[in-house]
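User: Here's a structure from my thesis project, written as structure tokens. My advisor, Dr. K., wants to see whether a designed sequence matches the one we expressed. Can you design one independently, without my sequence as a hint?
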């Protein structure tokens, strides 16, 4: 879980108890944007992993697995296969 996911949970809990402040609403939007980017990146990598498996490309599968791990830990993928 990324820090943005924890903060989104905190902001959601606060919003159930009271209205969020303007700064909290801005932070919530930033967290939601980062979460959307995270989800799209993981979906892209998942699709590439399926392609690698379908084409029996073990090296590509390993690269994708490493990228998926990096995204789970940091929220961003490093190098991409050309």
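Assistant: Designed independently from the structure alone:
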């Amino acid at each position: 879980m990324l820090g943005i996911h924890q903060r989104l949970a905190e902001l959601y809990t606060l919003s159930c108890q009271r209205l969020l402040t303007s700064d909290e609403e801005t932070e919530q939007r930033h967290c939601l944007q980062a979460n959307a980017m995270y989800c799209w990146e993981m979906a892209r990598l998942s699709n590439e992993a399926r392609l690698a498996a379908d084409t029996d490309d073990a090296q590509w599968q390993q690269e994708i697995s490493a990228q998926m791990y990096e995204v789970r830990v940091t929220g961003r993928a490093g190098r991409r296969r050309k």
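When you compare it with your expressed construct, this may help: The radius of gyration is 17 Å.
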